[in-house]
Amino acid sequence: MCVESDGCEIEGSSSSDEVRTLSGSMSPGLKPSPDLHSCKPGQKFRDALRRYRTPAVSAGILSFGNVLNYMDRSTVAGVLLDIQRHYEVTDSGAGLLQTVFICSFMVAAPIFGYLGDRFNRKVILSCGIFFWSTVTLLSSFISKEHYWLFVLSRGLVGIGESSYSAISSTIIGDMYTSNSRTMMLSVFYLAIPLGSGLGYILGSGAKDAAEDWHWALRVSPFLGITVGALILLFVPDPKRGSADHMEGHIPHSQSWISDMKALAKNRSYVFSSLATAAVSFATGAFSMLIPIYLHRAQVVQKEVEACTKKVCSSRDSLIFGAITCVTGLLGLVIGAAATRFFRRKTERADPLVCAISMLGSAIFICLIFVVAKNSIVGAYVCIFIGETLLFVNWALTADILMFVIIPTRRATAVAFQSFTSHLLGDAGSPYLIGKISDKLQERFASSELWKFLSLGYALMLCPFIIVLGGMFFLATALYFLDDREKAEKLKKLMQQTPPSSVKV
């Protein structure tokens, strides 16, 4: 009799089948067992899926999904010169694309955070990916007479992508703890610079290959649909708090209002969210406008001509994308290594490493606008160092949140942190800096030199905001230990006390 490894009989075999030995008698080890049962349809396939639903595989799929999340955002930035020429819009009009995207993103994030704390997270993730991939593909067919519709499409993409950003990291947080969680979150948040850099490269490469910028928006949607399917098949929805050894039933907060009140009283969470907003302000403006600024710098140096052709030069987008990929990897590796080292010296290592790296980043980002007029290579060097230091804090900020927030409130905390960081950060920074640049250009005679200088003067606001973010991380360090201790006590109380009597 032939038997499957999970204890069920293969279709077509029978318990009455006899297997004879050389002596002619039935082998005792092969006699039918009463525990055997017929295989259900698809049982072998489901068992195979369960074998691959490991934390490492799940974290890998979620990290790849995060790469696509950020790749989709920066694909538009990678061909922004072409979009600007095609739709005939100003710097502020180009910046409006990012502003509309982020505004819809931040409004939807708290809603998905609420849903993520209460319903099946992987289903929400997959639906979000399918939605944003479809809208991105359709937006590539919008004609030049309907720029408002193209702007609206970016807003719809922001809604889809907010579901992923609000929930995905909490699944990893429920599969790993301590240094393992820091490492896996570092890999996960490597997607921010890696995806952003690949977005520039993919967008520019697809545009050059097809000699049409619309094709930059027609590649990532198919990858997104693939990742959505992989999440449904291989990523589990782990029990909330399982990695924190919270056994039994874990109570939810009484209401969303009680969650928000608790988060508002958590000073480490508040200050780290404000610091994240400063990072978002700078990265939002940089991701959209730095390639244009670098192109104008080379026009001033007479290395290239101004964009008047059907397809603009992709050189700066490609170089900036490659730098972003490399600096993202370096920043996250340096951040994880530095935090692991300094945790032996002080328990406040996470916020202190973030603060020092941001203050150092501000210096080199400021230098970009000093050297760009005379040396494009010098500008790239400053961008490389400044971005590396800026990317140190991405995973560490998420780890700070995991330390000071209880598991049943983490999705809401991630979503609201995303909301505030975008509201005060990149929701307005691309449009604001583009508007400042436009106003400066209007006040003086238009020339290629003045277009370059006006955008540089507007971007000079970013290093000052980064310094402010470093100050907020220093404030986080003051309250980090107290808030972490409160979270640990509350988790123990939730384990020991009946659910109905726990006030969270």
How would you describe the overall organization of this protein?
This protein has a single domain (54-241, 252-433, 442-491), classed as MFS general substrate transporter like domains (Growth Hormone, Chain: A). 72% of the residues lie in helices and 1% in strands. It is built from 19 helices and two strands. It has a two-stranded parallel sheet. Helix 6 packs antiparallel against helix 16, helix 12 packs parallel to helix 14 and helix 17 crosses helix 18. It is mainly alpha-helical and 504 residues long. It comes from Xiphophorus maculatus.
What are its keywords?
504 residues; mainly alpha; Growth Hormone, Chain: A; two-stranded parallel ribbon; 19 helices; MFS_spinster-like; transport; sphingolipid transporter activity; transmembrane transporter activity
